[in-house]
Write a structure and sequence with these properties.
The protein is of the alpha/beta class. It has a single domain, classed as Phosphatidylinositol (PI) phosphodiesterase (TIM Barrel, Alpha-Beta Barrel), CATH 3.20.20. 30% of the residues lie in helices and 18% in strands. It is built from ten helices and nine strands. It has an eight-stranded parallel β-barrel, surrounded by five helices. Strand 8, helix 10 and strand 9 form a beta-alpha-beta unit. Helix 5 crosses helix 6. The radius of gyration is 17 Å and the shape is globular. This is Glycerophosphodiester phosphodiesterase. It comes from Ancylobacter crimeensis. Pfam families: GDPD (PF03009). InterPro entries: GP_PDE_dom (IPR030395), PLC-like_Pdiesterase_TIM-brl (IPR017946).
Amino acid sequence: MERTPSLGWLLARPIAHRALHDVAAGRIENMPSAVDAAIEGNYGIEVDVQLAADGEVVVFHDDNLDRLTTATGPVKALTGRQLQSLTFRGTTETMMTLSDLLTRVEGRVPLLIELKSGFDGDISVVERACTRLAGYRGPVAMMSFDPVLVAALRRIAPHMPRGITMEHHYEDPEWDFLSPETKFAWGQLRHAPETRPHFLAHYVKELDSPVATMARAVSGMPVLTWTVRTDQDRQMARRHADQIIFEGFRP
């Protein structure tokens, strides 16, 4: 029988989306100074991780380098060492590996790690992230939009707090690769027998969905909500969530 981990630490303080970034202050999302700012502010930190060409786990959100760095092309085309040599636009800072991040944070604030997916059945990012996290003593949880990765996390590290990142309708064009049947199934948590999430990380604009409401009220499952940016988002979160993943202001 699986034991549900205590998640009070995950809900105790607001969580900075992609760390406490602020372009005007020279802090780009998921980069070292944004992590340092979140630690200084005593916020939890949400980051994204994915695999480089050589299997290194790097802290970066986009599939491509173009938007945030001085390079172009897909992240997965370069090795970890090559990615670490690139600078973020307008800065002198470089990309972190997951190991770099863990050394930087040292357990001082909670970490919420989103596992990026190619939605192709490859679970390597789960395996390698769990390897990097072995022995880390700080509070950490992992989550993903991809139920395959969350199910793999359940098998590989059953005691690691795990969540499903989700929407209710998956209407954004980025989800056009999903069939209507898959969108419905994911929005209804039909994968729950395989994933057994410990918490939900739900899109704030659809947070009043029956699924999120039932998970929280009936099952007692904690609900985080992303990405909280406006007063309207905050009002929605106060009614329907247990903690916020925020950006663009300091709660």
